[in-house]
Amino acid sequence: MDRAPSVRTAPTGAGPGGWETSGDSPLKASLRDKDMPGTVASPEAVAGGAGPGSAGSRTPAPSGLAAALEDLSRGGWFSIPEGRPVPSGSGGPDGPAAWLPVVRPEALGDPSFTRDHGMRFPLVAGAMANGIGSVEVVEAMGRDGMLGFFGSAGLAPDAVAGAVDRLRRDLPAGTPWGVNFIHSPGEPDLEDGLVDLYLDRGVRLVEASAFLDVTPALVRYRVTGLRAGPDGTVVAPNRVIAKVSRVEVATKFLSPPPPRILDALLASGSITADEGRLAARIPLAQDLTAEADSGGHTDNRPAVALVPTMLALRDRLQAEFRYPDRLRVGAAGGMATPASVAAAFSMGAAWVLTGSVNQACVESGSSDAVREMLAAAEQADVTMAPAADMFEMGVRVQVLKRGTMFAMRAQKLFDLYRAHGSLESLPAADRAFLERTLFRAPLDSIWEETRAYFASRDPGQIARAEAEPRHRMALVFRWYLGQSSRWANAGEQTRRMDYQVWCGPAMGAFNEWARGSFLEDPRQRRVATVALNLLHGGAVILRAAALRAQGVDVPPEAVRAAPRTRADLLARMGAA
Predict the structure, then answer these.
(1) Which of 7, 193, 247, 341 shows its CA 20 to 30 Å from the CA of 98?
(2) d(CA 524, CA 565)
């Protein structure tokens, strides 16, 4: 915000229409020519429409207020409580006036976050597994000054390497981008392999997600390359943005790496003595996204409760460790409308992260069939289902339930896993159902396919399965859970009832906001257009809130945050 006197008598000589800006503009001319005090317009005029005026049951707001709220780069004085623009040259109206502040989308959140990550706007597209958070999503976000994470979870190392190589080759130097690093508690070798790949290819930013605890692989990524700068400060080439929903996990990320892990890495020769010594002076992650009720891995916690809790934790740990670069917290889960984005920034979020809405965009690695399903979703059309990557632990993910039977079928598998000790002990009727409906093949054939998969990915799983029949059953059941996401991404029509589509209630909220606009059509949804709309609309809402806080009666119809095209938004934000 440019300046913030709360309430005062309107000044004289403040410029045409009461705007304290240099030069002229169509908006200022409109206010000067048509919107002097005493002019009262209909709600249709307030909202920018040209329909017949009808005041209704309440006193309509002055014409021009909606347009003024949308002109984010100009501030001005408005009368209290009517909200009429204050003219110049006449001494102003009788009574006090409120200042409408400048609120630029790029100034929302913490400017140090956008500066450190080379961003213009404080919005991040979170990673979605199996390449749903695609290279195209990352590239589109980066081109418009936002950060996107490639969804590497669930992909073969060669596919991840190919995506990283493409991003490094195609994105101009300085463009923000990152790659997902998901916790794999049952496959520590997979985590180590990813770290080797990221370090070898110069990946400097990862989004650490679904972690239940800090792992040696993650610490090794963060610590490798640490050095002391000329002024003695720690220079860390590798950054981590943690995405968590639990305070105990967040505490570990915002603290220095555990000494026991550093000692073990040092003993194995994975880090140097200097790296281990410097690691004690920095957090494992300077940046942490508070993940509220979201698609995929989630604890279903409300953002209005979780974000303030994480902010308080941030402040406590910053005071404890006295880091030279302050800790930062962003908000995720439900970030799907301008109102939710405005709320997150009002609570103090340094950035916002979107997820479900990106899967519904044309650049995502999902299929047109899934995009159509997501575009039809309402807020209640989600449920929890067993997770493929943490099946045996009973971890659950949030998925779409409308138009698919995945959640019920996945739960059936988990119930059978808990009740029986092996595939051979399954009741005949249940086994027949699984082979006929879910797997569409004999379970023994599915095991052979699963065995071949783990022979190259993690041979230790095969040895364990041969020694533990129940683990063999879990791996077979995980085949269905893993394939269900791939069927959805590929748009496999014969498996439509088995689609696993990670989705939170934010998707329904987005659809409600987009209804009646060009964004209602899933073919028109593009990640950067959606993101810029959320930021622009959020800024409009925050400006309206600033006027209301000073006593101006801002009617709902004056707060326009409807979808606009990318070209329109960039023009309004001062970009070509």
Answers:
(1) 341
(2) 10
**Which of helix, strand or coil describes residue 417?**
helix
Q: How far apart are CA 11 and CA 114, in angstroms?
A: 36
- Give me the DSSP letters along 546-572: HHHHTT----GGG-------HHHHHHH
Do 152 and 181 touch, CB atoms closer than 8 A?
yes
Whole-angstrom Cα distance, residue 325 to residue 330? 16
Structure tokens at 387: 């997770």
Cβ contact 50:44 at 8 Å: yes
Structure tokens at 72: 């984010």
In the three-class reduction of DSSP (H, G, I as helix; E, B as strand; rest coil), residue 536 is classed as helix
Q: How would DSSP label each residue in 242-291?
A: EEE--HHHHHHHSSPPPHHHHHHHHHTTSS-HHHHHHHTTS-S-SEEEEE
| 3-state class (DSSP) for residue 296 | strand
Note the pLDDT tens digit of each residue in 537-569: 999 999 999 999 999 999 999 998 999 999 999
Residues 6+ apart with CB under 8 A from 515: none
Query: Domain ranges in the chain?
Result: 7-102+528-572, 107-363, 374-498
**Closest Cα partner for 402 from 333, 497, 481?**
497
Q: How far is CA 163 from CA 132, 197, 440, in A?
A: 12, 12, 33
Query: Using CA atoms, how far apart are residues 171 and 169, in angstroms rounded to an integer?
Result: 6
Per the CB < 8 A criterion, the answer to whether 525 and 125 are in contact is no
d(CA 56, CA 159): 60
CA gap 326, 319 in Å, rounded = 10
Residue 53 has pLDDT above 80, yes or no: no
Cβ atoms within 10 Å, residue 67? 18
Q: How crowded is residue 421: how many other Cβ atoms within 10 Å of its Cβ?
A: 12
Q: pLDDT digit string (tens) for 194-221?
A: 999 999 999 999 999 999 999 999 999 9
Strands 123-125 and 352-354: parallel
Q: What is d(CA 522, CA 510) in angstroms, rounded to the nearest whole number?
A: 12
Main-chain dihedrals φ then ψ at residue 104, nearest 5 degrees: -90, 135
CA–CA gap between residue 499 and residue 490 (Å, rounded) = 10
Chain centroid to CA 336: how far? 9
Residue 144 identity: D
| Element of type H or E holding 297 | strand 296-297
Single-letter residue type at 407:
A
Name residue 468's amino acid.
E
Mean pLDDT, the chain, integer? 88
17: tokens are 């229409």
In the CATH scheme, what is the code of domain 107-363?
3.20.20.70
- Whether 28 contacts 85, CB under 8 Å: no
Strands, E, within 120-222: which ranges? 123-125, 147-150, 178-182, 205-209
